[in-house]
Please model this.
Amino acid sequence: MISSTSSLTDIMDHVWGILVRGGADTKHPYHFPAFATYGPQGIQQRTLVLRKADPATRQLHCYSDDRTQKMHDLEQQANAHWLFYDHGSKEQIRAKTQVRWHHQNETARKVWQEIPLAARGDYVGPIPPGTYAEHYTPNLPEDFQKEPTEENTEAGFKNFVLIVSEVQELDFLKLQKTGHLRARFEWKDDQWKKYWIAP
Model:
């Protein structure tokens, strides 16, 4: 439990601990963060799924379709901001990251093979996500809707992207009646610099 008596190291450990949990637990509030990019259309935010958090490598993982606006933005500016909030604990984490990705390579293939067939629908759409349509479309092939198989989902691999965000800065805020608590952690000179910040 984080409080005003916690050390910056305690808070840092707490932050990474709950990010790891958010990546592993589909019911955790941090499993569905906001992900912001910047491109020709300005700042774009969307909710996505945190697939994995790794404190040892300072990485946050998520997936995308290569045809999305977020990928177009990242190709021009490989930076993203993540926003996590847990209403129960009244805790917020903001992560500033540098981004790289895996597309149609061995790393992407390894992750793709672990995705359940039914979950591959996000990548098999015949129309690029975000395309205007004259009427409602589920953007799924008919054979996939009937029964997803290895064969009718394989075409989705060409669209599948594993996004790896390397954390450069973490900002932690805890709302509490006795006075809010805020701390920041910046990766500099191959180590974390820890700071108290006025909330």
